[in-house]
Design brief:
106 residues, mainly beta, Ubiquitin-like (UB roll), two-stranded antiparallel sheet, 1 helix, 9% helix, globular, amino-acid biosynthesis, PRib_AMP_CycHydrolase_sf
Length: 106
């Protein structure tokens, strides 16, 4: 992947949606900077940028619930990513839920 096509925002970040590659469930939304994107491409495991801690965050380092990259796409504008992943342990959310999107509005 040519990361020069990715448009990072004024904070150097791009949003990325992690989606289960088997059933399409949206598991989480996080952010990447250039370094985390490069590390993700090299390792084939998701590495994000933690906006709160301001550090690289290799998903699963503490929980063991890593995310193995199957496919990685950027949108038509180059300002958002979708990662189709294999969620090891089947838990993506820090709350212990499979997906971070479990709060229903309607």
């Amino acid at each position: 992947m040519d990361i020069s096509k990715i448009k990072f925002d004024d904070k150097g970040l791009v949003p990325v949606i992690a989606q289960d590659y088997k059933d399409g469930t949206v598991l989480m939304l996080a952010y990447m900077n250039k370094e985390s994107l490069q590390k993700t491409l090299e390792s084939k495991e998701m590495v994000y940028w933690s906006r709160s801690r301001k550090v690289l965050w290799h998903k699963g380092d503490t929980s063991g619930h890593i995310q193995k990259v199957k496919e990685l796409y950027y949108d038509c504008d180059g300002d958002a990513l979708v990662a189709k992943i294999e969620q090891v342990g089947d838990i993506a959310c820090h709350t212990g839920n499979r997906s971070c999107f479990f709060n229903k509005l309607i």
